Amino acid sequence: MNPPNRSVRNAFSLLELLSGSPDGLVLARLVEASGLPKTTVHRLLGTLTDLDIVCQTGTRYHLNARWQRFGGDQFTAPIVSRDGQTLAGLTLRTRGPVSCDQTAARLRRLVADLASAVSRQIRAS
């Protein structure tokens, strides 16, 4: 069996990095995290953008919305300050889609409970 094509392997490496970064990544971070040369990363991102798999917003690269579903499900809850301002978000990303509604509901509750606990700690300090 032939080893996988290096370009395909490198492209999937970038897709994996992007799937774990809901806020997107800048080119320098993708180069650093992948260990690939900057020219290779830039060329692959150009191809993935042309194929409408990746999109670029400013200096950040993101998975296109229709491709994000391959990265798993995401559950998010806000962390709020004493005055009710949202300080950050707590996000749990699963490695694959969550197919059971009960499991998804439990994960949603877990993230909400954790965010609430962090918010209480912030308000108490």
TrEMBL record:
SMART domains: HTH_ICLR (SM00346). This is IclR-like helix-turn-helix domain-containing protein. Residues 5-65 form the HTH iclR-type domain. It comes from Actinophytocola oryzae. The lineage of its organism: Bacteria, Bacillati, Actinomycetota, Actinomycetes, Pseudonocardiales. Pfam families: HTH_IclR. GO terms for biological process: regulation of DNA-templated transcription. It comes from the Bacteria. GO terms for molecular function: DNA binding.
